[in-house]
Design a protein that fits this description.
Helices cover 62% and strands 10% of the residues. It is an alpha/beta fold. The chain folds into 3 domains: 629 residues, ABC transporter type 1, transmembrane domain (ABC transporter transmembrane region fold, Up-down Bundle), CATH 1.20.1560; 232 residues, P-loop containing nucleotide triphosphate hydrolases (Rossmann fold); 182 residues, Rossmann fold (3-Layer(aba) Sandwich). A 6-stranded mixed sheet has the order 5-6-7-3-8-9, sandwiched between helices. A 6-stranded mixed sheet has the order 15-18-19-12-20-21, sandwiched between helices. The longest helix is centred in the first third of the chain and has 50 residues. The protein is elongated and about 120 Å long. The C terminus is likely disordered. This is Multidrug ABC transporter ATP-binding protein.
């Protein structure tokens, strides 16, 4: 009984009945991730195992190692491939026997019983082929999944170890491509190797059988194949080169789009949409040009194989006739069947070879990444001192900065401040301690096992506040509360609608700079490291918060820890154990504050300069009212991925068909030509084969050589039509891809800023990478193949029914079963494919997020936690992928049974028809050929239709992007055209202004009435959430006013063209954003300014000497995000970029938060000198930055509290109004 149960279970799995519950569920409802079948145990990731090394010495050994690890599955796949291939090879034999015996039956020399067994065998052939091929696919699927997991793990593990130098040379877009496109190309290698084996076996078998039927004439086929092999090899080499070129162009575009999408707020501030559109279009055109060249070679490759097989058959028949041999219907149709088999591998080989070439190129790219420089694991010393620098020499890669002979030590429990001018090496020193960079000589010794690191640019995950604080550590609620207290976050958390469970957007988009830094500090408290490294965490907070952090956290919570803090804020230096002063690449002074003031004149000058700047802050401080800003109060910020439900809408197909037809009056003609071309190439094979069967069955009406020559002419015309059709479809497919890309790009550039705040960059980038790649390369082919499959099914079915009407008795009920099967299948497969697509995005988004925080992750030793998160995303993605594949197998293994029933039934009906004289044996032979291929046409038709539906989901997602609501150029119904000089004065008037971020959200500005005089310099202060940054966003119309109005020089800004409005303003945002390129391209991306103007601004901002120190000056390279510059330097370059605009109204949003106070003072002097007569609005948390401006504007809860000149009485009054009396030092 146990044996029977086991056998039944095995049979159930063999025919994929275990997938049936999912199919039935998909018919009743829209499938969700909870409905999917669990991932088989063998395919689950073994998290307990260390990632095994792999041979990276060459592409060959790398690919061999990957495939060799799946040897068992590859062997299993190959064994099933042999079953399927041998079944295929048997079909010409049974066709020959069937026609031969039918001929004898028509002549009366054979009986029914002689033909009947052949009819049964014909029915069984399709079933055996289906079983063999489908289980081959299932085995290769499992190998595919395991290779994807293996490569993803290798890439992720390598990413966790990338050195700073490697990160500067690696683009995030490239690495995401390694994890997606390149990995998938390599995962297909086992299947492709199987395809090569199948092709070889089929070629050998076909040629052998041809030799059996045609004698030595068959050697002609081998000779022609051998002669033309060099041609195909040359085409393959050309394909490799062009494929490599296209992938480079695609990577360039994806990388560029990644930078643009991450900086869309900046793009809109500076009105760069048109220039960026042109820039992306140029890069896209280069990619499309490479795609066209590749498509031509791909088409030439495919056509050459079709031409070769046609030529071989033509020559073989000619030679056979010239030898005086007879051409009978049995022989001709057997040869047609054999050459059909021969054409399969020959026609399939170009695709296999091109994909193997892709895999070869992908292997090269992945090997290059895996061979990138890694950081060494943290090596602990046995020193008593936690940190020792022993004669350390370090020079940056570009040679523009160097540390010379650093030697010092930091004792247990010591709190040390690192100070110095911008660019003096404070961050570099911390990176040496973290072992993120290596000294060229000397040594940095660390003797404590755990480090905590708060980076200058806060690392914030796209998760809740609590998840960001805990970063995977299991801690008590009490410990979280302690962390909130010592980091002064209690009030902030209380103000968030979801408290600790409020979701922080990508890169902390809905938090202020100060809040982001305190989240990072809170994380460090919870992680409880031995050594704490802080990179300027106080710059982004107000004065009172700074005091609280110093007293409660640095000198309180961490009083027994070793703390090293790089800072520009010098007020609390007397409280630190020691101060390390950096100057000219060395430790200029080290000691207590009093010691440094006595011993170092340069430090004394540096410090006294700072005191002068901060004199007013010493006297009176506006404390927490001067702080960062976050007016966005949703508990959950990020939107879910867009997902359509049910069948792919017909409008999507219409959209794509229109894109194929292009714009203009010729659209319908083009679409008609595309359809007619596919119809022609579907009918020509039938016409060819009908002619062969007819003339071989009527030797008295036409000579054999004439018949063969006419066949050759028909074949030539067929080849020309096929070539023309392919060229036409390729051109239109590429044009459709270009049009859809352009529409999506235009929509993205017109989208409101809030869309980018609520949509992860990873999701948007996938639209411009994977989805666009699907449209560019696969969709056109799938669409053409689906139309062709439909025509082939109609042609085959028509031939069978017209020839044997009796078959309708079988076809009608079978058709009913088939129809219901495909409905069941497509309903489930469609949703499974959608989930497969959706499940990929979180994996790539998490990977990008990990790359963005490597120093922090490594410092806290959180690699395992991030790895586990990645594995969870990967398994979910693999689960959706496997379910989608299993649904395909469930359907595909049933179709051969239907096809076998049709073939067998057709054979029986043909026996009756020939016996009764209704059909000739020649016509019956042609019908049986088409009936045997009918199941394949059915299977192929539904599979390609399903594939088309899945590809159309890419169109679905792209169309969603093209329909994003655009920013309104005009809000009012009566637009106003302003002249070139507007605004000439710079007067700003807010009249009873009310605003909210979204219709569903509460107001963030409530009845604001204020008049800012022309040329006034206004400081804007207020607590977090007071509405400070919202003012800027309303002026830029990122947020539209729903009541009241804002006027500039008497003109309602809602009535002005949006581009015109923004182009007349200038802003220096809080987060410094630089693009990969040169210094000049970052300052003046579109060459609107002269070098003289740029150098003047560099001088004004104190960057002149720095830029002159670079070997290439303005043409010096800037890495992705400006990673090769310090945070302060990046901020100064952004300041210079804004000053180049020479706008009448300039806004600064905490623009000097990341520079020291001396540099800040210099910048303020520059701004006052250069911006004299201009209207300047300044949000700042340093009182020294705003205290001597013309006006101080105090915001509270979206309302104006005060607007006066900033004298002492006003400061005290404002502090009292905000409940901060205790914060004042009087």
């Amino acid at each position: 009984m146990v044996g029977l149960t086991t056998m039944l279970a095995a049979l159930k799995n063999f025919f994929f009945f275990n997938v049936s519950p999912l199919v039935k569920k998909g018919r009743k409802k829209i499938l969700t991730f909870e409905d999917l079948l669990p991932l088989p145990e063998e395919l689950k990731l073994n998290r307990s195992l260390e990632v095994a090394p792999i041979d990276l010495s060459s592409q060959r050994t790398f690919i061999s190692s990957l495939v060799g690890e799946q040897k068992k599955l590859v062997t299993r796949a190959w064994s099933f491939y042999v079953i399927g291939t041998l079944s295929s090879l048997s079909s010409p034999f049974f066709v020959n026997q069937f026609i031969t015996r039918l001929t004898r039956l028509s002549e009366g020399s054979a009986t029914y019983w002689e033909v009947l067994p052949i009819a049964v065998c014909i029915g069984l052939i399709g079933v055996m082929m289906g079983i063999g091929y489908q289980h081959n696919f299932y085995a290769t699927l499992r190998a595919n999944v395991l290779i994807v997991a293996r490569l993803n793990r290798l890439i992720f593990e390598k990413a966790l170890k990338l050195s700073q130098k490697a990160r500067q040379n690696v683009n995030v877009g490239d690495v995401v491509n390694h994890m997606s496109t390149d990995t998938e190309a390599l995962a297909d290698v086992p299947m492709l190797i199987g395809d090569l084996g199948w092709a070889t076996l089929l070629l050998i078998g076909s040629v052998s059988m041809l030799f059996y039927y045609l004698g030595w004439t068959a050697l002609i086929a081998v000779a022609i194949l051998a002669i033309l092999t060099p041609v195909t090899r040359k085409i393959a080499k050309r394909f490799i080169h062009l494929e490599d070129e296209m992938m480079k162009k695609r990577d360039h575009r994806v990388t560029l789009m990644g930078q643009i999408l991450q900086s869309m707020r900046l793009v809109k501030y500076y009105v760069w949409e048109e220039e960026i559109s042109n820039q992306v279009s140029q890069v896209r055109e280069e990619e499309v040009k490479a795609r066209r060249s590749l498509a031509k070679v791909e088409m030439l490759s495919g056509l050459s194989f079709v031409a070769i097989s046609t030529l071989v058959l033509f020559v073989a028949l000619c030679v056979h006739v010239l030898r005086g041999e007879a051409l009978t219907p049995a022989l001709v149709l057997t040869c047609v069947s054999l050459f059909g088999l021969l054409q399969e591998p020959i026609g399939h080989l170009p695709g296999v070879l091109s994909r193997l070439i892709n895999a070869w190129v992908s292997a090269k790219r992945i090997i290059g990444f895996l061979n990138s420089e890694s950081v060494d694991g943290q090596v602990l010393s046995t020193n008593v001192q936690p940190i020792i620098f022993d004669h350390v020499f370090y020079q940056s890669e570009k040679g523009n900065f160097a540390f010379k002979d650093l030697s010092f030590s930091i004792a247990e429990g010591e709190t040390v401040a690192i100070v110095g001018e911008v660019g003096s090496g404070k961050t570099t020193l911390l990176q040496l301690i973290l072992q993120e960079i290596k000294p060229q000589s000397g040594a940095v010794s660390i003797s404590r096992s755990t480090l905590g690191y708060v980076s200058q640019e806060s690392y914030i995950m796209n998760a809740t506040v609590l998840e960001n604080l805990k970063m995977g550590k299991d801690v008590s609620e009490a410990r979280v509360k302690e962390a909130l207290y010592v980091t002064s976050m209690e009030r902030d958390i209380k103000n968030l609608p979801g408290g600790l469970l409020t979701e922080i957007g990508e890169k902390g988009v809905n938090l202020s700079g100060g809040q982001k830094q305190r989240v990072s500090l809170g994380r460090c408290v919870i992680q409880d490291p031995d050594i704490v490294l802080l990179d300027d965490p106080l710059s982004a907070v107000d004065v009172n918060t700074e005091k609280a952090l110093v007293n409660n956290l640095i000198l309180g919570e961490w009083k027994k820890k070793t703390v090293i803090i790089a800072t520009h804020r010098l007020e609390a230096l007397a409280k630190f154990d020691r101060i390390l002063f950096l100057e000219d690449g060395k430790v200029a002074a080290l000691g207590t504050l009093s010691e440094l003031l006595e011993q170092s004149e340069s430090f004394k000058h540096f410090y006294s300069h700072h005191l002068e700047v901060h004199a007013l802050e010493k006297d009176s401080e506006l404390a927490a009212s001067i702080s960062g800003e976050s007016d966005k109060t949703e508990t959950r910020l990020m939107s879910d991925e867009d997902r359509e439900e049910g069948a792919v809408k017909g409008s999507l197909y219409i959209d794509y068909i229109k894109a194929l037809g292009g714009e203009g009056k010729h659209q319908r003609f083009i679409i008609a030509a595309l359809v007619l071309g596919v119809l022609a190439i579907s009918v020509f094979p039938l016409f060819n084969q009908w002619w062969l069967s007819w003339f071989s069955g009527h030797p008295t009406q036409i000579t054999p050589i004439q018949g063969v020559m006419i066949y050759g002419l028909i074949a030539l015309v067929s080849l020309i039509v096929q070539m023309s059709n392919q060229i036409f479809w390729l051109k239109r497919g590429i044009k459709a891809g270009v049009e859809l890309h352009d529409r999506m790009l235009a929509a993205i550039l017109r989208a409101p800023v809030r869309f980018f705040d609520t949509t992860p960059v990873g999701r948007l980038l996938q639209r411009f990478s994977r989805d666009l790649e699907s449209v560019d390369i696969q969709l056109q082919w799938s669409f053409e193949a689906a139309v062709q499959a439909l025509f082939q099914i109609v042609v085959s079915l028509s031939l069978i029914i017209v020839s044997v009407p009796l078959i309708l008795v079988v076809i009608v009920p079978i058709g009913f079963v088939y129809w219901n099967l495909q409905i069941l299948y497509r309903a489930s497969a469609r949703e499974a494919k959608r989930m497969d697509s959706i499940a990929r995005s979180p994996r790539y988004a998490h990977f990008k997020e990990t790359l963005g925080g490597l120093p922090v992750i490594r410092a806290y030793k959180k690699e395992a936690w991030f790895r586990e998160q990645f594995f969870s995303h990967l398994e979910k993605s693999q689960q959706a992928f496997v379910n989608n594949f299993l649904l395909n197998r469930w359907f595909s293994i049933r179709i051969p049974m239907i096809g076998g029933l049709i073939s067998g039934s057709t054979a029986l009906c043909l026996i009756v028809s020939v016996y009764n004289g209704y059909l000739t044996a020649a016509t019956a032979g042609l019908v049986i050929l088409y009936s045997m291929s009918f199941w394949g046409a059915l299977n192929w038709g539904i599979r390609i239709l399903s594939d088309l539906e899945s590809r159309m989901t890419s169109i679905e997602r792209i169309r969603f992007m093209t329909r994003i609501p655009s920013e309104k150029r005009f809000v009012t119904s009566s637009p106003v055209v302003v002249d070139e000089a507007w605004p000439s004065e710079g007067r700003i008037h807010f009249s009873n202004v009310h605003a909210r971020y979204d219709e569903s959200l509460p107001e963030v500005v409530k009845g604001l009435d204020i008049n800012i005089p022309p040329g006034a310099q206004v400081g804007i202060v207020g607590r977090t959430g007071a509405g400070k940054t919202t003012l800027f966003q309303m002026i830029y119309r990122f947020i539209n006013v729903h009541k009241g109005k804002i006027e500039i020089d008497g003109v309602d800004i809602a009535s002005i063209d949006l581009g015109t409005l923004r182009s007349r303003l200038a802003i220096i945002p809080q987060d410094p954003t630089l693009f990969m390129g040169t210094l000049r391209s970052n300052l003046d991306p579109y060459s609107r300014k002269s070098d003289e103007e740029i150098w003047k601004v560099l001088k004004d901002t104190g960057l002149e000497e720095l830029v002159k120190g670079f070997p290439l000056g303005l043409l010096s390279a800037v890495s992705d995000g400006g990673a090769n510059l310090s945070q302060g330097q990046r901020q100064l370059f952004c300041l210079a970029r804004a000053l180049l605009l020479n706008a009448k109204i300039i806004m600064l949003d905490e623009a000097t938060a990341s520079v020291d106070v001396v540099s800040d003072a210099k910048i303020q002097r520059v701004l006052r000198r250069e911006l004299k007569g201009k209207t300047v609005l300044v949000i700042a948390h340093r009182l020294g930055t705003v205290a001597d401006l013309d006006y101080l504007m105090v915001m509270n809860d979206g309302r104006l509290e005060s607007f006066k000149a900033p004298n002492r009485e006003f400061l005290e009054e404002s502090s009292a109004e905000l409940g901060l009396e205790e914060a004042l030092e009087v």
